[in-house]
Structure formats: C-alpha cells, structure tokens
Specification:
By secondary structure, the chain is of the alpha+beta class. The chain has six helices and 19 strands. A 13-stranded mixed sheet has the order 1-8-9-10-11-12-2-3-4-5-6-7-13, covered by helices on one side. A hairpin with a 6-residue loop joins strand 9 and strand 10.
C-alpha cells in the first residue's frame, strides 16, 4: 500500500457543523487545546466522511514515506506531512478502543473494501479488491500506523496544530454541532500571505475532547476546500474481535520493514527499504516545502505516476523544468529529472525551492 501524498477531488455531504443548541462552557483557545491533549482514551464507533473540492481527477500515490511524520518533526515537518493526511475522498467506518486499538474500513466502490487494523504496535492493511495484505510492526507504540488514507479528524487536527507557529492566529468561534454532539470550534488562521491556507476549523467534542471534524478553507475563499468529519458517532468500546486480523485464505501477505534512520521507503514497493536520501523539508511553518528526491536513473515513482496519467497531465501546466499542478490548497511540482516538490504554497515557491536545491 503506497502512501498518498497529494489530494483528490470530491464532495462531502451533510458534515458542515450547524450551531449547537446548548452553549458549552466558555473556554480559551489554550483551554480547548488542553481539552484535546488531556482527553481520556476515547472508545467509539463512527462513520467518517472525507472529501475535497478541487475539480481534479484522483491523484495517484506518490513519494516515499514511512508514515505521517516521515518528513520530520516540528512545524515544517508537520506541514509537509499534512499532504499525506489530506488523502483521497472516502467514506469509512471507524472503530476505536483507546489509543492503540483502531480499525478503519474504507469502501472502494460497491464491492471492494480496504481495512487498516491496529492492535498495539501490530498493524495490518488489507485490500479485498486483490485479496492482498501487508503487515507492519510499529517501532514506537505512540506513533500512527503510517497510512494517511485512514486518517481520522484527530490525526489531521494533530498535524495542523503541530504546524501552528507564531504566524498562526488561534481563536475559538461559536459552538458547533457534529454528529449530534456539541463541540468547540477551534480556528487556526495563518497570518502569512505566502500560504494557500486561509483557515482551519477543528470541531472539538465538548465532553470528550475528541476532534470530530476538520475543515480547511483556502485563502480568499468562502467555503472549505477540504472537509473530514464524523456523520455518526456512538461512544463505547466496540467488540474486541474487531481489532484482530487474520489474512483470508489465498491472500498474498507481505511484511513491511520500517526504514532505518536516513533511508527512504515506499511501503508499497519493497519489503526492504532501499538506500537513498529521505524526503527533505525546506522553509518553515505554513510556507515549508516537501521535496521528494528522484530514485536511481533520474526518475521518481510519484513523478512518473503523475506524468503518466493523461488527465493529470492535461490539468498540469508546463513550467521551466517540469509540470505544475495547482489546487486551491496544495501545489505539486513534477520536475523532468524525477524530483517532486509539494506544499501548501503557491507554485512560485516550489519553483524557487527546486532551483535552490540544484
């Protein structure tokens, strides 16, 4: 299962929060963030919808990664990894029991399904479409499973909050309601005009501190371009058997070997991480840029996938040295030498970063 690093198109219906009927106790932004950070282990069953409204065809998986934090820690690494969390449109069934038990079932068409099942450090990925399974043992129990396509609002909210820097204004808006639950409306607004992001709205459950939805609006836009949120949520521990996975008979099973420090690894292409430079992050805060290097021979998996897709090639515009694909929130630069650069920034910044790296 390759980790996607770019955004797809779609429509999310019915998840825009409405005004909550009963006002929650007033809290400052710091208190709402503390509510999230100190929340007790939340167990629940929920239906999650995620979508973007970019008017583009689905973008293929691209670029090596070892998980949401592959690009590095801190605000710059967090912004770079947000691209993976803002993955493809999907409707998913989510089951959680505390911090180390999670199952996400994503529908792939009418008769196919993808599953991510985690119990402790043991993680399985399964695709019914081709009856294939992959197994991963996490190196640290508190890190994510490494598949952004199964990200919950809590995962996405965590990345945006980690990206918040002194150039971010944080406030609390009017109470909202998501999946029938009253929530605080935590607002993050980058002060710099050098990012495409205008506002991030995180709905935080007033009782549990669980992030219920995340909406991202582009600078100067009136409506969100990205939305991820629960449409149904029931608190309580799911059946424990849901967090145990046994590969079906006849399925192909592959072991994913986490990369050693300093190595890149696309979990969809190899059982053993190859030697080579990791994706690098330049810049800081909301204007940081993720650069995925070319592999041997001057080509890159992500670059090849983008250039080979006729719809994406048509949507991209020619720029010196490659092609530029622009969306309201996210820009991707595919260079002829196989490098791929991406960020929540205008294309000019990617071109400048590419030139500086030569």
């Amino acid at each position: 299962m390759a980790v996607p690093v770019v955004i797809a198109a779609g429509v999310l219906v019915g998840t825009l929060p409405a005004g909550a009927a009963d006002p929650l106790p007033a809290r400052t932004p710091a208190q709402v963030i503390e509510l999230m950070d100190t929340r007790t282990a939340v167990s629940f069953t929920g239906t999650l919808e995620q979508a973007t409204e970019f008017g583009l065809p689905d973008l293929p998986a691209a670029g090596p990664s070892s998980g949401p934090a592959a690009a590095g820690d801190g605000p710059a690494g967090s912004v770079a990894s947000i691209a993976g969390l803002l993955a493809a449109d999907h409707t998913a069934r989510v089951y959680a029991d505390g911090p180390a038990k999670l199952r996400v079932q994503v529908a792939d068409g009418s008769f196919a399904e993808r599953n991510m099942v985690r119990r402790g450090t043991d993680v399985w990925f399964y695709a019914s479409k081709d009856n294939s399974a992959a197994h991963l043992v996490l190196q640290a129990p508190d890190r994510g499973a490494g598949d952004p396509s199964t990200a919950t609002p809590a995962d996405i909210a965590g990345r945006f909050l980690a990206a918040a820097d002194p150039d971010t204004e944080i406030s609390v808006g009017a109470d909202v309601e998501v999946a029938g639950r009253a929530a605080y409306n935590l607002l993050l607004e980058p002060r710099t005009a050098d990012t495409l992001v205008g506002r991030i709205a995180i709905a935080v459950d007033g009782e549990t501190g669980l992030p219920l939805s995340v909406q991202v609006t582009a600078r100067g836009a009136a409506t969100p371009a990205f939305r991820s949120g629960f449409t149904a949520l029931a608190l309580g521990a799911p059946d424990d058997s849901l967090f145990t996975f046994v590969p079906p008979a006849g399925s192909s099973v592959r072991e994913i070997v986490p990369p050693a420090p300093g190595l890149s690894h696309d979990v969809g292409d190899s059982e053993t991480p190859p030697s080579g430079p990791r994706p690098a992050v330049t810049g800081s805060g909301w204007t940081s840029v993720l650069a995925v290097p070319a592999v041997a021979g001057g080509t890159g998996a992500g670059a090849n996938a983008l250039l080979a897709d006729p719809l994406l090639s048509q949507a991209a515009v020619d720029v010196p040295g490659g092609k530029l694909l622009s969306t309201p929130l996210f820009t991707v630069l595919v260079l002829a030498d196989g490098r791929l650069l991406a960020g929540l920034v205008p294309g000019e910044r990617l071109q400048a970063a590419a030139a500086a790296a030569q």
